[in-house]
Amino acid sequence: RRGWGQGWSGMAGDGGELDVPLLLDRADDGGGRGGGGGGTRAHTRLEEARACVQLAAPQSASNLCSFLLPLATVVIVGRLSGADPLPLSAASLAVSLSNVFGNAILIGTASALDTFAGQAWGAGNHAALGVYLQRAMAVSLVLSLFIAVAWALGLSPLLHAIEPDAALASATLRDLASLFLLVLFVGLTECLKRHLQAQEVVKPQLWVSAAAAALHVPIALGCVWVLGGRAVGALWGAGVSNALLFAMFAAYVWRRGDPRVWPGWTWRAWKGWGEYMRVAAPGAAMIMLEWIAFEVAVIVAGSLPGDPEVTTAASAILFNCVAVLFMIPYGLSGATSTRVGNALGRGDAKAARRTAVVATVLALGVACLQQAIMLGLRGPLPKFFSKNADVERAVHTAFPFLCLEVFFDNMQCVISGVVRGQGSQNKGAAINLVAYYCIGLPLGLSLAFKTPMGLTGLWAGLSTGAGCQTLGQATLVFTGDWDRLTRAAVERAALEDAHRGSDEHAGGEDETGGGV
């Protein structure tokens, strides 16, 4: 989760078409409004559940494949480090910082496509998807430039403030420079993934992600060899693997993409940034606020009373459990944002709300299943990660709050997908701010340092924050005015259409045409 990062009608056989019986056919080309939009339609909650699962399953598997890239990278660094803990510690800290101050920003801004592209596809404004994709990628490139400058100028003081070990701080800065290539392509790849996701094209994401995961280890080892056996080569390898992932996604869009969604290269991608950022900036804030809260907990774990090596190791085990289990609801979250956005773009408020209800019930079912699995593995799970009795004991003590955190994290993840589909990211960001920084973290830090609970108290605070986040997001979603949201979605899709017509009428449309 704090890692890297997620068919066409008339294109039978490409493995990407959603196959849901008893659903209405997708609209043909023509850009119709009011019922002529894209996206499959369900008439009952059972049909909706099946449509959500068929969209979510490939995305969840794709997320798991993507999770293997950072995991394998850290393992390679650890193996090459031998008895010296510095390279592994520096790489781990660099990955954490690159996630919060790089990936979270770019993934969050790309999530605006869940709103814009999803609603445009539902409205039948197919050509707008290509404009939104180009705009999102342009924003990602510009933000990447700002991130590079910020890393160069601002992270050194921050690192030396939070890390007293000068050698570790210097090694972390070096590793961060190695990770910039990865961050750059994470942002661009995320744009392509959400562009496809808005059209309910999900199976190709799985095959591409699986191919990148399979090739990552030899690529990383090759980069290590090129750099003379230095562990930092694995971090460069992660960037190369993500560049390859981007290239494969781009090749799929080029060769198999729906021609209706590509208006050619257009200068309109450099317009309308104000409207785009009004959705993208809160989307980035939603992710950053949550990720930073967890990274603060990671840093604090080493300062808790008791043996810092034990608390740090136990904390790492708990966070790894959260990260792996998060991949399943993350796929359902993507499916939910797509279904809600498509329905709102079509002007179908009833279908959008039905998707929200069904997705929440599915999330509850997945969460309960995960709880059953976790309870069954409560004994052997700590032993799988560590043979240290003190570490096992610390994990076992905090385990009930880990279960609570995973449960609420599952629920809020899917409900946040509804928020993105609605375009309500500004309110979602405010909820995350209150949940974690006014409630969760203050409570966790107080319990961790002012009571004997220690690490368990920290996780009690995190689980409370996740619970408040879930309650707030659910209240936002299920008390919202769906008719107003539908009107806003239709107007948003029509606005981009109007911009296109205005440019064409003024002769200002400068397109190069052709494929991506």
UniProtKB/TrEMBL annotation:
Task: Give the record's keywords alphabetically.
Answer: Membrane, Transmembrane, Transmembrane helix
| Record's signal peptide | none
| BP-aspect Gene Ontology terms | xenobiotic detoxification by transmembrane export across the plasma membrane
Record-linked Pfam families:
MatE (PF01554)
Basic and acidic residues composition bias: residue spans: 496-508
Places the protein is found: Membrane
Topology relative to the lipid bilayer, per the entry, is: Multi-pass membrane protein
Q: Gene Ontology cellular component?
A: membrane
Presence of the UniProt keyword Transmembrane in the record: yes
Q: Which residues cross the membrane?
A: 136-154, 206-228, 234-255, 276-301, 313-335, 356-377
Spans annotated as Disordered: 496-516
Q: GO molecular function terms here?
A: antiporter activity; xenobiotic transmembrane transporter activity
The family classification in the record reads: Belongs to the multi antimicrobial extrusion (MATE) (TC 2.A.66.1) family.
- The name on file for this protein is Protein DETOXIFICATION
Q: Which organism is it from?
A: Prasinoderma coloniale
- From which lineage does this chain's organism come? Eukaryota, Viridiplantae, Prasinodermophyta, Prasinodermophyceae, Prasinodermales
